[in-house]
Design brief:
- The chain is mostly helical.
- It folds into two domains: 1-117; 128-283, no CATH class.
- 76% of the residues lie in helices and 0% in strands.
- α7 runs parallel beside α9.
- This is Cytochrome c assembly protein.
- Keywords: Cytochrome c-type biogenesis, Membrane, Transmembrane, Transmembrane helix.
Length: 283
């Protein structure tokens, strides 16, 4: 069996584990079955192992970290999101329910990836630099932190709304209080803001080495910069004008939508020098 077939099998195994974990998480949310939370985390971790193995096989096959074309881009971003979610559980185990947002998005992204071209394309030598590795790493971290920040914002809105109605679900009661959720939302936004900054800065250095200029107002560059500015605007409103609570939660959700558009929507609409993001079979 060749490497690509093994990768596809491993990806579908990870999709299966993520789907089962998602069902358990939604069952916990709807029926208040808190006992499903811990098994869901172990199942998600099992899926992550298969997911990681598939990426490693692709890496060995191509000789570079998976970042070229839909097959690699979507699978690696999904991996980054799940990795960030699992790391968060080490420090905030009472936020397991965030998997109800992270895992469905991840297995959908993997599903999109495996249904596109698995062709290995020749990569320009200018791409083989550690600056590109730094750029890609922090892109994954910025996406993961934006996703978790928005997830915490959603939890804040759900818990606040249920408290106002006087009907708090047992599962929501186990979450941190709304002031703590608001603060966690803010901290993850700060992290996303920093990760985006490092991603943009390292990308600029790589661009200079690859194309002889630091900045070219490429659509993806521009929208990544806009995303960073919007996160900065959020922090300005938070610190200067005390935007907290519900407004802060909604703002973090809006910021995530902007990041998703910048990372995944722009390549579908505009031509870009970021050819490694070209979605084979989708554009």
């Amino acid at each position: 069996m060749d490497s690509v077939k093994v990768q596809i099998i491993l990806y579908w195994i990870s999709v299966g584990f993520y789907a089962v974990a998602t069902i358990l998480l939604f069952s916990s949310t709807i029926f208040g079955k808190g006992r499903f939370l811990k098994p869901s985390l172990f199942i998600a971790a099992a899926g992550f192992v298969a997911h990681t193995a598939a990426l490693i096989l692709r890496w060995k096959q191509t000789g570079h970290f998976p970042y070229w074309g839909t097959y690699e881009v979507f699978a690696s971003y999904a991996w980054g999101a799940v990795a960030f979610y699992l790391i968060v559980q080490l420090f905030r185990p009472n936020l397991k329910i965030l998997g109800a947002l992270v895992l469905p998005l991840s297995f959908i992204m993997i599903g999109i990836a495996v249904m596109t071209s698995t062709e290995v394309k020749e990569i320009p030598r200018t791409f083989f630099t550690y600056w590109l590795g730094i750029h890609i790493l922090f892109a994954k971290l910025s996406y993961g932190s934006a996703l978790i920040a928005a997830g915490v914002g959603i939890l804040y809105l759900l818990k606040e709304s249920s408290e106002l109605r006087g009907q708090v679900l047992p599962l929501l009661e186990k979450l941190p209080d709304i002031k703590k959720l608001d603060y966690l939302n803010y901290r993850f936004v700060v992290f996303a803001f920093i990760m985006l900054l490092i991603m943009i800065a390292s990308g600029s250095v790589w661009a200079y080495k690859a194309w002889g200029r630091y900045w070219g107002w490429d659509p993806i560059e521009t929208w990544a910069f806009i995303s960073w500015l919007v996160y900065g605007f959020y922090l300005h409103l938070r610190i200067t004008y005390r935007w907290q609570g519900k407004r802060s939660a909604w703002m973090s959700i809006f910021c995530l939508l902007l990041v998703l558009f910048a990372f995944f929507g722009i390549p579908l609409i505009y031509p870009s020098v970021h050819e490694h993001l070209k979605y084979s079979g989708l554009a």
